[in-house]
Every structure is written in structure tokens, then in C-alpha cells.
């Protein structure tokens, strides 16, 4: 046993509860049982061929050295054009910093904004890693309860009620994980105005942009131009394992982000940056859009099917690939239900524990990151289990 | 102008001084001048063909999804075998965690070990990012002067004199950047014993292991088994831009490192992890060893050549690809000399400013990360400049 005392932070950062469930799911599969995976926060499509091909070409061309900390200039320009082409939002490429995933961007953003002893407002439920980016820099995550009343989005009103003089930043995500709900333009602008009024940082996580099944989400670069906008090649662009993301921020902060990138990461992956250039071609776009159509079809099936079974899914889960269900009509312990679903029905879904502090036992996340037939099978199995009496 | 106050940390973290010099070098090159680059901390060889090929194959096979936070099991095993095969050091693969570069490993290690208000001992001169990994978690970097007397390595005696009850960790590197010098087995073991006695963490950065030109360096896994050992595929294995490294630590800490990896990074690059498997094949090994021979030949040329010109390079720079020269016999301002070398001789080298606090104006780092003919040209140009009277 080591006599070294680990940091207090090490104890505050919790492993994900879902890990035990995942281990159990793998065990069952190893024992030959068929599991429908509705717990996975990753598209079930591999990286699109044009992108993979561009990655292979970059490797063949020897693009394997470090890059400038801010990113490959062509990629920063391609992202800027993407905002102009698809969102009518002109963005100076110099305001874009390429990062190792949205994850790396969130490390940089929190390091830029929050000091020890300050607090950071987070929607609850929300993305489970967010509180731990805050813990990394020894600020305090402050969970702000959001409900279906605001489509699970933080608003200026909620932020105002929760903020205090030690609030350093506010983190929001739209479309959100675990709820799949979107922030409206007015709400985002209101939040941006509140953040500006108080002089606190606003971090807008847009990693699920592109994956919307109704109106497109409000754009941070338009409605919250003074914020740090986080994005990624992981989800819409299907490059999870490549570890590539970006951030957009006020020009004056870019040197700060670049020096942090340089010190903490040197640069983001070079093959990934070259491959990502292909994300903006027509061929790749067509693939992404057909995948979006597949997600939409799944959402259109799963949402009414789960509601039919007694899962209460309020609001408008019109983006990402998640549904967040209130299961209190079915159980008083979502973790127990998740276990029963896995063990007795062969369906893996994530209980609320990792996503929220307010009422984890009442909630469960279903991801539609598996094929339609599998979702149909999953729903059928859930129905059987519930008919058998939970 | 944003009214948001950035973190105090943002101000404490300094950009590298060498950036201005690099920008100037690029300007000169754009204007058609030939520059000999002796400032670059990256092998001048592209990734070896078997590794690139493995990366291409992984992409073709669709290996593009997230991996477990601790890394690809086969890669952890391959690294463990590497310790057994080349260093006669058995290491349990379960003690190995795969990271986004040594950089990512250093973020995780500091997050594990140091709390705000504590301090971390660092050799001065040393790797410039180290102090900023410490700043990230709001601990205080405490520079400990090391000299040629200990081959620029921190020893138990030096650590004992510098440590206080608020010391959380000690960071060392061997072979070191910027000095290229190695820690001996007895010194490393002594430091490990001191760290254990005090219950402070020891971080041993072995990123330049494999690049030694005399006796191999002492191995952390052998002589400091209770430490966090940092390594990378960047240097000996020639994979800088892929962003892949690893850490070895006491088994009981692995769950902590994994939860940090998972929260902060999700996982390290998937194509990179698959490609890295090829680093342990015979074909790749032969390439790495021939590159090591090339580095050795360059070192054997450059060290006496610079000494001949009045650069005082004490100690035994027997590893990495750096020489750290005391230039006080030639100038009283190393930054000025670096500028003159660049502007008037077309040679880029790094002044001491980024590496040390003790006597930056007396020191300069030369990297032999360029071909022999270029080094010869560089030395000839330096000689001319010095003959012309600095
Ligand atoms: C809301 C949200 N933000 C950020 C991330 C991090 O993703 P990445 O680092 O792959 O870009 C995720 C991943 O699931 C997420 O759901
Ligand atoms: C001493 C030392 N440690 C760590 C690193 C980080 O390297 P990487 O993140 O590429 O593994 C470097 C890079 O130059 C280094 O010189």
C-alpha cells in the first residue's frame, strides 16, 4: 500500500455508476446472452468512408508530426466556412481553436474561467463529466435543477436564482445529454445577456449540433457570441475515437486558449485534423445527413413506443440521440429497473444516477444508437418484462 | 472587450518565449532565407512505415470508436511485454493506463497528486510545460536548482532541502529536456525512498527512454516502483502527432487514473492505439534503432563541435536529442545570442528563458533533430558568426 496521499480532488471525482452495468452487460454477452444496447452515447456508425480515406491519405503522406497548438489552419478555416454555409453565421477562423475532443476543449475552457473556491452552474440533469471538469480546477459544481418546464434547459431566470458573487461560469448544452432537448434562441440570448451582465463566463456545449430532428438549435456564435462554444467531430461527424473537437471564443481569449492547449496537450491529433477536413465535403455531408435521417426515424419510433409503455418523457427531445424518461410510474428505483431490464430482458439502459442529483431514482436514459430492428426488439422485451410485473 | 474575468491561473501560465523566435524563423524562411533548425523538440523522422501501415489498416477496419478509458487491452499488454523484453522488468498490464500523449498523462498525474496550496518540486532547468501542469491544479511549482554536479538531475538530497510539509509531489525526467542527461539507478532509488518516506508522489517522466547513447537510463518500474511513470509514443517511437502516451503506477491507483481519464478525455485516440501495436514488432524496432544510431552520430558530432566553439556543455548529455550549453563564455544574454544566431547566421536555437529560472541568460538549448549535413552547416555558420565577433 502506497503511503502517498492522493489529492482531495481524486476522491471528489466519482466513477460513473453505469460502469458496473456495462461490466454486467459484457458478462452476459460473454455468456451468450443477446443484449440490446440502449446505453451507449456514441453513434453506431463507423467514421464515414471519405473521412477515413482522408485519414489514410494523411498517414500515407507522412502527416504525423505535431501541429500548431491552435490547430491546422485549413481546418480552422473549414470550420469557419461551415458556420457560414450552414448557419449563416460568419466566424473568424482566428476565433477557432482545435482541441482533443470536446473533452479537451472543456478542460481548457474551465481552466480559463474558474478558480478554486468559485462555483460553476450546471443544469441538473446534465452531462456527467461536466462536474468533474469543474472539480479538476477546484471550483465547485453547482447543480441547478432544470425541468421539462424549460425543456431541461438552463435559463437566465434559473441562473439568476442560483448565481452568487463566487459564480465564475455557467455551462449549458443544446441539444442536451441526457435529455435530447434544445435551447431556444431567446433563452440562449437571455442567458448570454445574464452572463455578460454578471461578468461570468458562459460555456455552450454544441457537440450534438447537426443532430436535430425538428428546427435546428439556436447557434451560440449567433446568440451568445461572447461565450466559449464547444463542439466536436465526435457525434454528427462520427469521429468519436479520433478525439477531435474545437472551441469558438472571443478573439481576445484565443492566445490564452492557445497557451493552455500548448502546455497541456501540445496539439490535437494530426491525422485526425487532416481527416476532419473531409467532413466538409459533399460526399461526407450526404452520409451524415442520411445518418441523421436514421436517427430521426429511430427517435420517431422509440419516443411514442416508450411513452406507450408508461415511460413519461416530457418536453421535446428533438436532438442528439437520447430520451430521458421519468420512470416513477413504473418503479421507485430506476437503478433497480435498469438492473431488471438488463438481467431479465437483455436491454441495457442507463439509470439517472450519473446524470442528476435531484431525482436520479426517478429517471433513466435511453440512447437510440442502435439499429431500428434492435430498438424494436428492445421495446418488445421491455413490454414483456413490464407485463410480467416489473 | 469581454467583461468576463479570466481565471488567475490564466495569467500565471506563460506562453513560451521561443514562440516569438519561431515566428521570426518562419518569416525569414518565407522571405527565402535558409534556416538550420536546432530548436525543434521533435524527431525529424516521420512515423515509421510499419506503424503508419497499422494505422491505415485500423482505419480501413473501422477502428474509429471510443475505447475503454484505460486503453486498448492489447496495447497495455504489449507495453508490459516491452518492459519485460527490453528492460527485464515485469510490469502487470493492469498497472498501465493509455493516455493522450505524455501530456495527457501529466494532466492526470498532477490531478491525482496535488491540491491547491500544495507545492510540487521541479528540477530547474526542466521541461517548460511541467510548471503549468502544476498551475492547472492550482498547486505551486517549486523550482529546485540542479547543476552539472548531479548531471542536472534532482536527487534525494536536493529534494530534502527543498521539500516542506506542503510538498505534494516531485517531478523528474530522465533523459531530461533540455539537458539530455540521465538519472542513475542509485539517484532514482534514493529519490523514490525519499518520496516514500515523506508520503509524497513521485512522477518520473521517461518520454525519452529508448533514446540513450551510452548506458541505458535507470528504469522507474525497477528503481521507483511506487512512482507514477510517464511515457509516450512520441519520441523513440516517432509518433508525436498521434498524441499517445502511457503511465505506469501502483495498481491501487489505476481506478483513480481511469476515472480521471474517462471524465477528462473519454479515451486516447483509437487509430493511434491500434497503430502503436506495430511499434513492438521487429521491423519497427529495427527502424527505431537505426534512428537512434543517427541521433547518436549527430550527438557525437555536435557535442565536441559546440564545445570547441566555446559553448560550455558540462555533464553527460547521453540521451534525448538535446544539448544544454552554458553560453556565458560567449555572451551575457542568451536571448540576444539566439536572436543574432537566427538573424545573422540562419540558425535557430532556444534560449534558456523557457527552461529555467536560475540563470536563463546563461543558457541555450540545441536540438539535434535535423540531418547531419544540416548540423554541420549550422556549426559552420555559428563559427563564422562568433569569428565575426558575435
Ligand atoms: C454533452 C457532451 N459533451 C461533451 C462530450 C465529449 O465528447 P468528445 O470529447 O468525444 O468530443 C460528450 C460525449 O459524450 C457529451 O455527451
Ligand atoms: C520532457 C517531456 N515530457 C513530456 C512531453 C510531452 O510529449 P507528448 O505529449 O507528445 O507525449 C515532452 C514533449 O516534448 C517532453 O519533452
UniProtKB/TrEMBL annotation, chains A, B:
EC number, as in UniProt: 2.6.1.-
GO molecular function, one term: transaminase activity
Signal sequence, renumbered to the chain: none
PROSITE patterns reported in the protein's UniProt record: AA_TRANSFER_CLASS_1 (PS00105)
Keyword Membrane: no
Keyword Membrane tagged: no
Keywords from the named record: Aminotransferase, Pyridoxal phosphate, Transferase
InterPro entries: Aminotransferase_I/II_large, AspAT/PAT-like, NHTrfase_class1_PyrdxlP-BS, PyrdxlP-dep_Trfase, PyrdxlP-dep_Trfase_major
Cofactor: pyridoxal 5'-phosphate
Domain Aminotransferase class I/classII large: from-to ranges: 34-382
SUPFAM superfamilies for this protein: PLP-dependent transferases
Family stated for the protein in its record: Belongs to the class-I pyridoxal-phosphate-dependent aminotransferase family.
Family matches, as PANTHER family: AMINOTRANSFERASE, ASPARTATE AMINOTRANSFERASE
Protein name: Aminotransferase
Organism: Spiribacter pallidus
